[in-house]
């Protein structure tokens, strides 16, 4: 990452001019300047020299009346997910920076770069190219506390080239097998799950884990075939620092075991007498399933491994920290076995949620669930607040697993699925009655109605709470009116809000009942012959779907379908029912469009002229 691109170069500038500037500012370079029309390239001996050139020269030094722009030279094939952001206000808090970066997509890592400048520099890796591109467009040149941010790509050697998967040029096959270390083979180990292992370690042991000039941590990564990020610059002064380990499950466990051994040895050498438990960080979405019904899963892990396991309370969660701390006490061997079992449960939960997400996205093509931040990334928790509406990628605003605040533009592609696309024009509006605990009404409305107003604005839906049916009513009806996208976002946030506000226990999954109305003549199609369709619907979605018998149609000749279940189950069931209704409407439309035959039953034969 030591090759520099020098932009905004005057046509009068020569190689000697640029060399003179570098000499004046005492910036070493390891090769000649390659001067082109309007720009130039040069190599620096190391990254420190390259960073100094960027900090000292870019936007600050003139040459023949033009202010030079200096940044890393990055080939197009390596312009992937990695960005460098410079000129960050020196006093800016990490939480604020995390929230800002998360506005544009899921952040996999964010590491501060040591420089001689007053302002801060970070290297950021996004989960997707589009996220990085959006961040580049929105942040470069934007003002933050009177500092103009400077954003540029940095080389991503692990980036897979865009284009056909074959790896060859268009119209040509790839020539021979990929070279070792090339993107075709992947520089990083294959990770079976996107969930990394995150642990907390006492700050006093971080130096021992890194080792002299990073020798120890390099040795761990080499032996365990893992990528390890030590977030030592986060939360300055904190007693503990997070470590993120990316690898296969075995690789993560081996790296964790090695880190525990190093801490134990350092504790003996420094006469540290306190017990050093293993602390694992896990997103709140997965903790309920780790605990299990009545705590059975956790008790079994404790019994099988001979450890004592405790989990931090829900009250410790914040919008910026959706992770719970799982503390495991016991011998190193026992803690290592417990880590394997805990992470196995967490990965199973993640895989289950991903399968549900994929099924949901298949039913609603074009809905970008990843942009919603439905599942946690490997980076520390980042999320928006209700008062600060943020674009996609931030998670934590909704502990149920859905980040509530979406993009500046719509998240759906222009093409909607058959279940949400009318015969012509825009997606049809739908009405859903969602029933919530009566005690939760205040949380949904918010102070002076701010929460429900912001939620309605975010989702693009009309959201109203119906009056209570009686003094002792235990449930209240939320009336949501809007197209499928709006329904998805509004309901997701309501499910999440109920979990955040502890209306459901830590071991409970949020399950609500939703009512939708269907034309009475279509109710039979929802039920199916002998109840076949509704049974298949329940098996597919894991929701309880009931069409009450002996209903009297309302003034619009509609009857109610009741759907009960967790968020994904309810959404799947609603979409499938809407798909059935769309098919019924389409058939009716086709029948109406067919030409009517005369009373004789056969269409008239045209007369020959």
Q: What do these coordinates show?
A:
The chain is an alpha+beta fold and 609 residues long. The protein has 4 domains: 3-72, Alpha-Beta Plaits, CATH 3.30.70; 82-153, RRM (RNA recognition motif) domain (Alpha-Beta Plaits, 2-Layer Sandwich); 197-356, TATA-Binding Protein, CATH 3.30.310.210; 430-590, TATA-Binding Protein. It has 16 helices and 24 strands. The chain has helices at residues 15-24, 47-57, 94-102, 129-139, 206-210, 215-224, 249-269, 284-291, 296-305, 332-363, 441-445, 450-459, 484-500, 523-527, 532-541, 567-593; strands at residues 3-7, 34-35, 39-43, 62-63, 66-67, 69-72, 82-88, 107-113, 120-126, 143-144, 147-148, 150-153, 197-202, 227-230, 240-246, 278-283, 308-311, 323-329, 430-437, 462-465, 475-482, 512-519, 544-546, 558-565. The strands form 6 sheets. Strands 14-15-13-16-18-17 form a 6-stranded antiparallel β-sheet. It is globular and about 90 Å long. The protein starts with a strand and ends in a 16-residue tail after the last helix.
């Amino acid at each position: 990452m030591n090759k520099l691109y020098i932009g905004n170069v005057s046509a009068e500038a020569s190689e000697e001019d640029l060399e003179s500037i570098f000499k004046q500012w005492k910036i070493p370079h390891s090769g000649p300047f390659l001067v082109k029309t309007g720009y130039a390239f040069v190599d620096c001996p190391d990254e420190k020299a390259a960073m100094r050139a960027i900090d000292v020269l870019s936007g600050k030094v003139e040459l023949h009346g033009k202010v030079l722009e200096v940044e890393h030279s990055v080939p197009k094939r390596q312009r992937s997910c990695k960005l460098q952001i410079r000129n960050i206000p020196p006093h800016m808090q990490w939480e604020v920076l995390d929230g800002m970066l998360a506005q544009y997509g899921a952040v996999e890592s964010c590491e501060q770069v040591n420089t001689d400048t007053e302002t801060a520099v970070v290297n950021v890796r996004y989960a997707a190219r589009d996220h990085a591109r959006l961040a580049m467009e929105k942040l470069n040149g934007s003002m933050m506390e009177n500092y103009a941010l400077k954003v540029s790509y940095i080389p991503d050697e692990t980036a897979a080239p865009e284009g056909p998967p074959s790896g060859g040029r268009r119209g040509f096959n790839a020539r021979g097998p990929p070279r070792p270390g090339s993107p075709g083979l992947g520089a990083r180990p294959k990770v079976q799950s996107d969930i990394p292992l995150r642990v907390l370690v006492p700050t006093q042991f971080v130096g021992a884990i890194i080792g002299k000039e990073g020798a120890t941590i390099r040795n761990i990564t080499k032996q365990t075939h893992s990528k390890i990020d030590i977030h030592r610059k986060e939360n300055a002064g904190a007693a503990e620092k997070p470590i993120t380990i990316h690898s296969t499950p075995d690789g993560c466990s081996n790296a964790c075991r090695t880190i525990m051994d190093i801490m134990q040895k350092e504790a003996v050498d420094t006469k540290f007498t306190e017990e050093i438990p293993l602390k694992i960080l896990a997103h709140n979405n997965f903790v309920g399933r780790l605990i299990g019904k009545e705590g059975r899963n956790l008790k079994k892990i404790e019994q099988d491994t001979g450890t004592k396991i405790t989990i931090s309370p829900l009250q410790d969660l914040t919008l910026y920290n959706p992770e719970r701390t799982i503390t495991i006490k016991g011998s190193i061997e026992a803690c290592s076995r417990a880590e394997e079992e805990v992470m196995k449960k967490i990965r199973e939960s993640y895989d289950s949620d991903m399968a549900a997400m994929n099924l949901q996205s298949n039913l609603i093509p074009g809905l970008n669930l990843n942009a919603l931040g439905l599942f946690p990334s490997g980076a520390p928790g980042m999320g928006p607040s209700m008062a600060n509406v943020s674009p996609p990628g931030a998670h934590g605003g909704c502990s149920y697993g859905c980040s509530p605040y979406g993009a500046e533009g719509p998240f759906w592609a222009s093409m909607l699925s058959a279940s949400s696309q009318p015969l012509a024009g825009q997606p049809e509006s739908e009405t859903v009655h969602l029933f919530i605990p009566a005690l939760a009404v205040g949380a949904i409305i918010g102070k002076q109605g701010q929460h429900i107003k912001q939620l309605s604005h975010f989702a693009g839906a009309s959201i109203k709470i119906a009056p209570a049916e009686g003094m002792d009513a235990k449930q209240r009806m939320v009336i949501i009116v809007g197209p499928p996208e709006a329904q998805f976002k509004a309901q997701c946030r309501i499910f999440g809000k109920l979990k955040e506000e502890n209306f459901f226990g830590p071991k409970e999954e949020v399950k609500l009942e939703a009512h939708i109305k269907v034309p009475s003549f279509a109710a039979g199609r929802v039920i199916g012959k002998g109840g076949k369709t509704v049974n298949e619907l329940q098996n597919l979605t894991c929701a309880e779907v009931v069409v009450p018998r002996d209903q009297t149609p309302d003034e619009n000749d509609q009857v109610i379908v009741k759907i009960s279940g967790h968020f994904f189950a309810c959404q799947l069931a609603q979409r499938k029912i809407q798909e059935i209704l769309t098919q019924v409407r389409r058939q009716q439309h086709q029948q109406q469009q067919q030409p009517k035959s005369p009373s004789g039953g056969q269409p008239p034969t045209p007369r020959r002229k």
